[in-house]
Amino acid sequence: MTFNQIKMAIYATFLTNYYGAKLKKTDDAKEKKRLRIEYAKKQLDALDLHIKVINPEKIPSEGQFLLASNHRSVIDPLIIDLAVESTTLFGHWIAKKELYFSLFFGKFVQNAGAILLDRDASKMSGFFSDIKKAVKAGNSIYIFPEGTRNKTDEDVSEFKDGSRIIALKNRLNILPVFIRTQANDALMASLKGEQKPRTIEVEFGDIIDYKDKSMPLEAAYKKQFDLR
Length: 228
Hints:
Strand order of the largest sheet: 1-7-6-2-5-3-4
CATH superfamily: Glycerol-3-phosphate (1)-acyltransferase
Radius of gyration: 17 Å
Mean pLDDT: 94
């Protein structure tokens, strides 16, 4: 581990715990969004990573959606939060048990607005109840349909079935988002101390009606972004 990686790990740990504590003090969605954006900016500024939406005209300024994004890096939630910064959208992330209870991210994730997905649980009623509660409060749901980080050479890995079920159960239209830049490569280069700014490009797709069953979500997503 290089000196720069150690330094960044210490700073990231401090920020995560500091903002995790601040987020715990509020239940207001607007305030949680403000704190999440503030946190994301400080983390990415330290890495000299910058977010650019290449088609901002497609970002809805308001509404409730199931925001579905590809997933290649640990900073993807931060990228998405900054991409929708100028909107009123606030989403609850679907978080795996490993992240929800992790020593590093746990307190931040639990307090920032996340819904625990425990695939080992015998029943999923609590999971769907938490989603329904978040939607009823006027918020969106943010999800990585691949279920975990894509470490393959494919543009996206196979989508899990849960995304479409969540959309249907909660009457949420789907907002597809594609992080076009290989964010993990940019992150690793920054952590290695390569001193130059990097831009991560994000693209928004057309909203998919939750009732549209003309093709599977994965196929519709790939078609919108011209992916293989």
